[in-house]
Amino acid sequence: MFNAQFLGSNPLVYNPSRGIKLHEYQAGKLLDSYRVAIPIGEVAWSPEEAEKIASKFENGCVIKSQILGGGRGMGHIKETGFQGGVKLVDTPEQAKQIASEFIGNHLVTKQSGEDGLPVNCVYLVQKVNIDKEMYLSITLDRAAGMPVFIYSPAGGMSIEEVAEEDPS
Predict the structure, then answer these.
(1) In 3D, which of 36, 53, 35 has the Cα closest to residue 44?
(2) According to CATH, what is the number of the domain 39-129?
(3) What does the radius of gyration of the chain's CA atoms come to, in whole angstroms?
């Protein structure tokens, strides 16, 4: 993605900036396009659409609020206090109910600040058996001006707590 941020009143003078901010469903689509094995999933923009998508999964699914921030599982909905931005559901009706809690509201996480971030859609993915969780991310080391891979064999939802307990 390339954004030209114009400086001053002269539209010919600009400051190029690059940035990638992807929702999980967008990252999933990108990974899938390169044939990386990921759980099957679809995005829903309304509770009714979430119900329809959930009916495709025989054993229920995971419904994940989509915000541009982490810590969703331990967050809460600002407007209602509903706990968690990631939920396991067993039926399409549950998916519809959970989606109605998320969509159109703000999810507050450790990363979002007290105002939270808007949840405009949800990502419904198949349930899979997890043998082992790991954490892998790519971030930009601004001081070095290069990407850095961060890996931990003790991954999962609370990577921040893992880092505090064992910084190695």
Answers:
(1) 53
(2) 3.30.1490.20
(3) 18
